[in-house]
């Protein structure tokens, strides 16, 4: 979006000048360790320049500015391939949840480092037997005199390979119904008993991991929110996650943003073919509608109106837009989507985009789950029957492990 008040245009000029002087070149070709150190260096520079946590409250280490400034920054940053991937969980999920629910000491200890990239965080919710129905999870935290001892396995944990801390959802009371017996904790990912194993996806990269927790000790003051109210904390984090995933703009590096697909059509010389024009127009219209929907939602959040289930609309619409883009790009590229000359950056980027994008229909809650949330909470349709809702967790048959193992 361009245009705006004098204030945001001044801000835009400041952001533009800063990015022009400080944005690093693409890091994708660097060895992994160098990619990470370059990303950390850039995040620290963002923080020092006052561009990390733009709309976070000042007392949380943010800049206390508005969604207009955040939007301006996102628009200007979209012209670059910024190495912010290691911090997506910090900025979109764990950070905002600590802002909402953290104790003063947790906020003081973690938020500045989480914003400056000194700490990397991950989200330890999903398990082999608990994804959509995450309240069925079996990781068990048992209280002793010094704190808690955790045992269990998590899976699909994005960025755990780099993480210093995780927001862990674990069962603290198996004698009450499944949603009532959970607690969220801060877990030190370098603590004894934490093992992280990478999982490769079909793009050939390993963006997520399995995490094993064996007798991991967690101090008593590491509870996020309240003991037994982990489900409410999880809802808070998932709400932030859906808004964050749904409102992410395609960056210049994304082969599935409208501009990139238009570039592909231009290189193929087919921008005047009616079928392609129609597809491109549809792609543009949906991308723009989604941008405006998200801009409005961010303004409402800033004005104190939480988006609630509308975060699911953004999340679902973002995933559907990527599918639309895969179809359009696939039609345009034809065989070029699966075979290209070595060193052809466009071919590499497109294949990576096509292989990575379907995950967005699963990560942060599947499309089917978002549709159920929208149906029940926005459209007022009847709730799905949940026969296990009032049954003590101990009496349920859940998951891939024998239930006794988890207790
Ligand atoms: C790229 C990526 C990153 C991820 N990162 C993280 C992370 O950092 N931390 C983390 O904790 N998790 C993470 N996840 C896990 C993610 O949250 C789960 O994969 C997701 O919630 C789905 O759970 P599941 O894979 O167990 O599938 P299941 O829940 O087993 O679902 C299987 C199928 O059944 C459908 N289904 C299930 N229940 C219903 C229902 N009630 N109504 C209709 N259909 C239903 C689903 O839509 C899906 O099609 C990530 C996943 C991906 C793909």
TrEMBL record:
Matches recorded under SUPFAM superfamilies: Acyl-CoA dehydrogenase C-terminal domain-like (SSF47203), Acyl-CoA dehydrogenase NM domain-like (SSF56645)
Cross-referenced Gene3D superfamilies: Acyl-CoA dehydrogenase/oxidase, N-terminal domain, Butyryl-CoA Dehydrogenase, subunit A, domain 2, Butyryl-CoA Dehydrogenase, subunit A, domain 3
Signal peptide: none
Pfam family for this entry, one: Acyl-CoA_dh_M
Domain Acyl-CoA oxidase/dehydrogenase middle: 122-216
Residue intervals of the Acyl-CoA dehydrogenase/oxidase C-terminal domain: 228-379
Necessary cofactors: FAD
Name of the protein in its database record: Acyl-CoA dehydrogenase
Source species: Actinomadura napierensis
